[in-house]
Amino acid sequence: MSASPSAASLTRTATPWAFAGLVLIAALGAYLRFVHSGPFGVDEWWHGVAGAARGSAAYAVAVFMAEAGSGIGAAACTAIAAALLLALRRPRDAASVATAMVIGIAASETLKALVLRPRPWDPLFHASGSSYPSGHSMGAAALACSLALVAAQTESLDERVRRLMWILAASWVLVMMWSRAALHVHWLSDTLAGALLGICAAVLGRRMWVRRRPNADVGGAA
Q1: Spatial distance between the Cα atoms of 143 and 207, rounded to a whole number of angstroms
Q2: Which helix (H) or strand (E) covers residue 78, if one does?
């Protein structure tokens, strides 16, 4: 399996935007650290709208997402995805997925330690550390976007399958973002920043490992 010629330039085109996204995330972090660490108006609105009552079906879904997106859950999902890609003899794709998660975790934990934004005052589920950005949202976006990029740049896959991968990736990230607000452990702005960070990490991880044209080799060249 090799990269689609029509998608070969996707990562190169997205790379400058990924760096711009990182700058935006850092700038918002600086604002939260030195100017206003509390919630924005839209944060408070979404905090009231997205909440899930304990014992409800929505709460059960949110808790499932919290466990699936935890440090152990995200690491396990990334390891499984990388192992499957290695089994398909796509070492560059496997490395890009793993690298995206490493970049995302490093950036997320650094921002958390520097920004120190307080979490919402009424958590419905256990959470530790500071609020900005959402690590769960970052991990979901990093993994989902990485896999969608693999699919987008695999010419042997039907266009409908590639489109489905993007839909599934977006859906997973959006549900994860909702779950963090529903459990009252993050503000909306935390989840938006986390998702954007994960997308940027996915693009940069892909760019680091997959550079060559589709006829270069079968190891996931782009």
Answers
A1: 15
A2: helix 71-87
Q: In the numeric block, which tokens belong to residue 167?
A: 């839909």
Of 124-128, 141-145, 191-195, which gets the smallest average pLDDT? 124-128
Other CB atoms within a 10 A radius of the CB of residue 180 amount to 29
Q: Which two tokens stand for residue 114?
A: 């520097």
Residue ranges covered by each domain of the chain: 5-33+40-209
pTM value?
0.91
Tokens of residue 59, six digits: 């709460």
SS3 58: helix
- pLDDT tens for each residue of 46-58: 999 998 999 999 9
Pull the structure tokens for residue 222.
């782009």
- 99: region left, alpha or beta (phi > 0 left; psi from -120 to 50 alpha): alpha
User: Which of 145, 143, 135 is CA-nearest to residue 186?
Assistant: 135
The type of residue at 160 is: R
Cβ pair 125, 219 in contact under 8 A: no
Q: Which two tokens stand for residue 179?
A: 């779950």
Range list of β-strands (E), the chain: none
CA distance 10 to 35: 37
Q: Roughly how many angstroms between the first and final C-alpha of the chain, as a whole number?
A: 11
